[in-house]
Amino acid sequence: xxxxxxxxxxxxxxxxxxxxxxxxxxxxxxxxxxxxxxxxxxxxxxxxxxxxxxxxxxxxxxxxxxxxxxxxxxxxxxxxxxxxxxxxxxxxxxxxxxxxxxxxxxxxxxxxxxxxxxxxxxxxxxxxxxxxxxxx
Length: 136
Description:
Blueprint (H helix, E strand, L loop, with lengths): L1 E9 L3 H8 L5 H4 L3 E7 L4 E6 L4 E10 L4 E8 L4 E13 L2 E12 L4 H20 L5
Antiparallel strand pairs: 1-7, 2-3, 3-4, 4-5, 5-6, 6-7
């Protein structure tokens, strides 16, 4: 099982950040490489379209609004991985917020290092894009 993780500090309250990213169907609101998200199955499944036209289908596994965290799995994606489970968590950090995006997965046809680098890049790029919503 391979893992990846990224963390960023944001100069806004944890509640403000959760307001933007806490909705399972909210990725296009803050993640530039997701241009469309359509919910199904009562909001527990999201069908994502990337800027290059790829389709990713994800299922919400756990959601804790009070704890400002949710976990999701990938049902369908062009990634070289299976058994994917990721978590996004927002925590108060002084006057601001700390956001952690982490995941675990099994590589398919590539090394642990390659798939770890792929998802680390996704998480880091996504969190940098999130941070851009909150100018200092």
